[in-house]
């Protein structure tokens, strides 16, 4: 009888540990998901704040042309 009680106690303890590990894993997954959502919101906010400035800088860089002779070009003669 004592052996059966001890075995039942060990099985219950193993189930409890397994359940605890499962709950912790689920918690970490939800926590990671929340952090991801927060980071995405921040990235979108920064995108909307800086979009116009970045586009203006890019267009200025592309559209502003300074014709000049390349430093490696040598005129013979």
UniProtKB/TrEMBL annotation:
<comment type="subunit">
    <text>V-ATPase is a heteromultimeric enzyme made up of two complexes: the ATP-hydrolytic V1 complex and the proton translocation V0 complex. The V1 complex consists of three catalytic AB heterodimers that form a heterohexamer, three peripheral stalks each consisting of EG heterodimers, one central rotor including subunits D and F, and the regulatory subunits C and H. The proton translocation complex V0 consists of the proton transport subunit a, a ring of proteolipid subunits c9c'', rotary subunit d, subunits e and f, and the accessory subunits ATP6AP1/Ac45 and ATP6AP2/PRR.</text>
</comment>
<keyword id="KW-0406">Ion transport</keyword>
<protein>
    <recommendedName>
        <fullName>V-type proton ATPase subunit G</fullName>
    </recommendedName>
</protein>
<dbReference type="InterPro" id="IPR005124">
    <property type="entry name" value="V-ATPase_G"/>
</dbReference>
<feature type="region of interest" description="Disordered">
    <location>
        <begin position="1"/>
        <end position="20"/>
    </location>
</feature>
<comment type="similarity">
    <text>Belongs to the V-ATPase G subunit family.</text>
</comment>
<keyword id="KW-0375">Hydrogen ion transport</keyword>
<comment type="function">
    <text>Subunit of the V1 complex of vacuolar(H+)-ATPase (V-ATPase), a multisubunit enzyme composed of a peripheral complex (V1) that hydrolyzes ATP and a membrane integral complex (V0) that translocates protons. V-ATPase is responsible for acidifying and maintaining the pH of intracellular compartments and in some cell types, is targeted to the plasma membrane, where it is responsible for acidifying the extracellular environment.</text>
</comment>
<dbReference type="GO" id="GO:0097401">
    <property type="term" value="P:synaptic vesicle lumen acidification"/>
</dbReference>
<dbReference type="GO" id="GO:0016887">
    <property type="term" value="F:ATP hydrolysis activity"/>
</dbReference>
<keyword id="KW-0813">Transport</keyword>
<dbReference type="GO" id="GO:0030672">
    <property type="term" value="C:synaptic vesicle membrane"/>
</dbReference>
<dbReference type="GO" id="GO:0046961">
    <property type="term" value="F:proton-transporting ATPase activity, rotational mechanism"/>
</dbReference>
<dbReference type="Pfam" id="PF03179">
    <property type="entry name" value="V-ATPase_G"/>
</dbReference>
<dbReference type="GO" id="GO:0000221">
    <property type="term" value="C:vacuolar proton-transporting V-type ATPase, V1 domain"/>
</dbReference>
